[in-house]
Write a structure and sequence with these properties.
With about 270 residues, this protein is α/β, with parallel strands linked by helices. The chain has a domain at about 25-195 and about 255-260: Vaccinia Virus protein VP39 (Rossmann fold, 3-Layer(aba) Sandwich). Helices cover about 30% and strands about 20% of the residues. The protein contains nine helices and eight strands. The chain has helices at about 25-30, 35-40, 55-65, 80-85, 130-135, 190-195, 205-215, 225-240, 250; strands spanning about 45-50, 75-80, 95-100, 115, 145-150, 155-165, 165-175, 255-260. The N and C termini lie far apart (about 50 Å).
Length: about 270
């Protein structure tokens, strides 16, 4: 009998640049508001998809999620075999690396989280939805794909949470508050599904404009620190009717998450 063919690798090699601690903001969210999904998972499988030229982000993800679930199993998946070869010596129980792409070659296992960071930003916008759908089809029930982008050292970060059954459910923005001029500075780091939609008439443009206006309104609070100013900003957004999720413990981190319908691209 002829053995079944392995599925073709789906994706293209990206630049792969990364830095230690670059993804701390999204990891903190996975270990916080999203952690219940991992705690209740039968198979605590997590994928770092397209981890890049260095495996450091997968190593860090394993360490951070081990606090939530000590038996977490993190698999770093990269389309470039040379990058996988570099990562292999770092393998240990609960951390491994393999060649693959959006098809997620996991021998039939279904991950509860797939973190794809600074990956789809290098694709064309029409390629995003098919990539989301392919990964969603591989997730465990209740699993999440986190598609995000950040700057080189992780001071500005934004990600879309894409649920296995419901599609995109939220947009999160996380910022280093010290030295922040305006929240919309994150615009150049929006995920690919939104980055070209930051124009008048689009919901994400209205959202960032409202966030800037609230930040400017609370400028007098700067004398009490950027954190107090940010907390007041998020409260103003919530009071204005924006579907702000989570609570002050997250907002204090320079984070704000809103429901996807409030920012989703127009038709």
């Amino acid at each position: 009998m002829t053995p079944p063919r392995a599925p073709a690798v789906q994706g293209t090699i990206t630049r792969g640049t990364t830095n230690p601690n670059r993804l701390r903001r999204v990891d903190r969210w996975l270990a916080g508001p999203a952690a219940a999904r991992l705690r209740r998972a039968r198979d605590p499988l997590v994928v770092d998809l397209g981890y890049g030229a260095s495996p450091i982000t997968a190593v860090e993800l394993h360490r951070r999620l081990s606090v939530v679930r000590p038996d977490v199993d993190v698999v770093g998946i990269e389309i470039d075999p040379a990058r996988v070869s570099v990562a292999k010596p770092l393998e240990r129980p609960g951390l491994s690396f393999r060649v693959g792409g959006f098809e997620l070659p996991l021998d039939g296992r279904r991950p509860v989280f797939v973190r794809a960071y600074n990956v789809l930003r290098q694709y064309a916008e029409p390629e995003v939805a098919p990539a989301w759908d392919l990964v969603r089809s591989r997730l465990a029930p209740g699993g999440l794909l986190v598609d995000g982008t950040c700057d080189e050292i992780g001071r500005r970060s934004a990600w879309v949470a894409v649920d296995a059954g419901h599609g995109p459910v939220s947009l999160s923005v996380s910022l280093r508050l010290g030295g922040l001029e305006r929240p919309s500075d994150v615009a150049e780091r929006l995920p690919k599904a939104l980055i070209h939609r930051n124009v008048p008439g689009e919901r994400v443009h209205a959202y960032l404009g409202a966030l800037d206006a609230a930040w400017a309104r609370h400028a007098p609070l700067s004398s009490f620190g950027a954190r107090q100013r940010w907390l007041a900003t998020v409260h103003t957004m919530k009071d204005a009717g924006w579907p702000v999720l989570d609570g002050p413990s997250r907002w204090r981190l320079g984070e704000i998450t809103v429901g996807w319908d409030s920012v989703r691209p127009g038709s």
